[in-house]
């Protein structure tokens, strides 16, 4: 029994106790013991948010919504490490009826549908299977949606609906092989413990193509940065889909259904669809255009060493640093500019801790008196670069353009 197993067993009772805390905070809908506020600098205004530490297992988080909880990670957290601590990792649920306690003795993951041997797997059995660990960024499809112009409906996230963790678990392929996928399988559907509040609300579930599900990278994780998953991030197990947006990373996973046809449920057929256009871009206000399910992530980079609007004492040049991600592959290079993109400087990349994770970058830029528009742009290992111009689509998905941070030298 390794440390994680021991802790998982030992913390069962603690888990049940924590449940009361979750209910108290989430159920009562009055958690935010307001401490401080943060300005997300959203162009559409109404950008002030409360910081809250009232959610179980979570430190100071930006409160986007209470019930169900939508908690955003403050940018300075990303400056400290390329791995996002579990207690600062963002939280997003669709339905308010979220699991608040899980009995690790009786919990079962059911595998069925188009298979030869339907399974009911307990956690002890899961923990005995061969393990893999993959560092990977979990990023909401709508991360940075609050920066869309014109504004679109949905959570007005800043850049903090993302996080990078070392995910420990078992390969989905191994589980599917245990169940014996029958010929003619098309997709695999993943369901969870959370439930709609209204009887006609569509239960949250997502599907992956069978070849993707069996690629050996998609995994069922029970470990996150060397600990068990926080309740709000999907305890006891969640799907991890490296390189793909986190809508597919089903939390509190308890059902795997192999389908002999494409999933036509609401969350695949209607929601999380992007325009089938280059960069998922359409003219603002567009409605009728062909769509496809959102899928792979794209390269992104941010300066994290100074917050937007920071006033600093003038010097000829300043050090700047931040994080970048390749999206569905590794990170190749990051450039930084302090004159709004006229002059670019190459940065030094930190250690490569896995191609699906964040990569640290550090550089130095000249500083002018007054406002400096500091920009970062990156290229992934496929040669895809961040473009200068923002996209628009009605879902507010897949932002990936060059971001600007203003620093005022006085
Ligand atoms: N069971 C379940 N899993 C889910 C969701 C959900 O509502 N229910 N939301 C998805 C979406 S859209 C996002 S952005 C991520 C958020 O993961 P996190 O809360 O661990 O950061 O969970 C995904 N998995
Ligand atoms: Mo999301």
Automatic annotation (TrEMBL):
<keyword id="KW-0560">Oxidoreductase</keyword>
<dbReference type="GO" id="GO:0008482">
    <property type="term" value="F:sulfite oxidase activity"/>
</dbReference>
<dbReference type="InterPro" id="IPR000572">
    <property type="entry name" value="OxRdtase_Mopterin-bd_dom"/>
</dbReference>
<dbReference type="GO" id="GO:0030151">
    <property type="term" value="F:molybdenum ion binding"/>
</dbReference>
<dbReference type="GO" id="GO:0006790">
    <property type="term" value="P:sulfur compound metabolic process"/>
</dbReference>
<dbReference type="InterPro" id="IPR005066">
    <property type="entry name" value="MoCF_OxRdtse_dimer"/>
</dbReference>
<feature type="domain" description="Oxidoreductase molybdopterin-binding">
    <location>
        <begin position="97"/>
        <end position="267"/>
    </location>
</feature>
<keyword id="KW-0479">Metal-binding</keyword>
<dbReference type="GO" id="GO:0043546">
    <property type="term" value="F:molybdopterin cofactor binding"/>
</dbReference>
<keyword id="KW-0500">Molybdenum</keyword>
<dbReference type="InterPro" id="IPR006311">
    <property type="entry name" value="TAT_signal"/>
</dbReference>
<dbReference type="Pfam" id="PF00174">
    <property type="entry name" value="Oxidored_molyb"/>
</dbReference>
<dbReference type="InterPro" id="IPR036374">
    <property type="entry name" value="OxRdtase_Mopterin-bd_sf"/>
</dbReference>
<dbReference type="Pfam" id="PF03404">
    <property type="entry name" value="Mo-co_dimer"/>
</dbReference>
<dbReference type="InterPro" id="IPR008335">
    <property type="entry name" value="Mopterin_OxRdtase_euk"/>
</dbReference>
<dbReference type="InterPro" id="IPR014756">
    <property type="entry name" value="Ig_E-set"/>
</dbReference>
<protein>
    <submittedName>
        <fullName>Mo-co oxidoreductase dimerisation domain-containing protein</fullName>
    </submittedName>
</protein>
<feature type="domain" description="Moybdenum cofactor oxidoreductase dimerisation">
    <location>
        <begin position="308"/>
        <end position="398"/>
    </location>
</feature>
<dbReference type="GO" id="GO:0020037">
    <property type="term" value="F:heme binding"/>
</dbReference>
């Amino acid at each position: 029994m390794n440390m994680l197993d021991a802790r998982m067993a030992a913390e069962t009772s603690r888990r049940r106790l924590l449940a009361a805390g979750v209910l108290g905070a989430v159920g009562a809908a009055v958690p935010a013991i307001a401490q401080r506020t943060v300005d997300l600098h959203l162009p559409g205004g109404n950008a002030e948010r409360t910081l809250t530490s009232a959610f179980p297992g979570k430190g100071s988080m930006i409160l986007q919504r209470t019930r169900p909880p939508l908690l955003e990670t403050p940018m300075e957290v990303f400056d400290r490490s390329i791995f996002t601590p579990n207690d600062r990792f963002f939280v997003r649920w669709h339905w308010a009826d979220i699991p608040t306690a899980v009995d690790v003795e009786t919990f079962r993951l059911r595998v069925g549908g188009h298979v030869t041997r339907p399974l009911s797997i307990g956690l002890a059995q899961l923990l005995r299977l061969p393990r893999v660990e993959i560092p990977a960024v979990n990023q909401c499809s709508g991360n940075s949606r609050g920066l869309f112009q014109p504004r679109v409906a949905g959570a007005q996230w800043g850049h903090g609906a993302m996080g990078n963790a070392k995910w420990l678990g078992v390969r989905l392929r191994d589980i599917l092989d245990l169940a014996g996928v029958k010929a003619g399988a098309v997709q695999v559907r993943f369901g969870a413990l959370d439930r709609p509040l209204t009887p006609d609300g569509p239960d949250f579930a997502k599907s992956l193509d069978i070849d993707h599900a069996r690629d050996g990278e998609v995994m069922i994780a029970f470990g996150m940065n060397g600990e068990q998953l926080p309740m709000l991030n999907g305890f006891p197990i969640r799907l991890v889909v490296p390189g793909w947006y986190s809508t597919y990373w089903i939390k509190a996973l308890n059902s795997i259904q192999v389908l002999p046809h494409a999933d036509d449920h609401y969350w695949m057929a209607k929601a999380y669809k992007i325009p089938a256009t280059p960069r998922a871009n359409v003219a603002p206000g567009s409605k009728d255009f062909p769509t496809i399910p959102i899928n792979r992530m794209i390269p992104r980079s941010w300066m994290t060493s100074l917050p937007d609007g920071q006033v600093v004492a003038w010097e000829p040049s300043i050090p700047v640093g931040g994080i970048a991600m390749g999206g569905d592959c590794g990170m190749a290079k990051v450039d930084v500019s302090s004159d709004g993109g006229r002059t670019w400087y190459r940065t030094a990349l930190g250690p490569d801790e896995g191609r699906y994770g964040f990569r640290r970058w550090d550089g130095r830029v000249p500083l002018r008196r007054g406002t400096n528009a500091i920009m970062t742009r990156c290229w992934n290992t496929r040669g895809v670069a961040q473009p200068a111009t923002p996209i628009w689509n009605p879902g507010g998905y897949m932002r990936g353009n060059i971001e600007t941070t203003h620093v005022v030298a006085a």
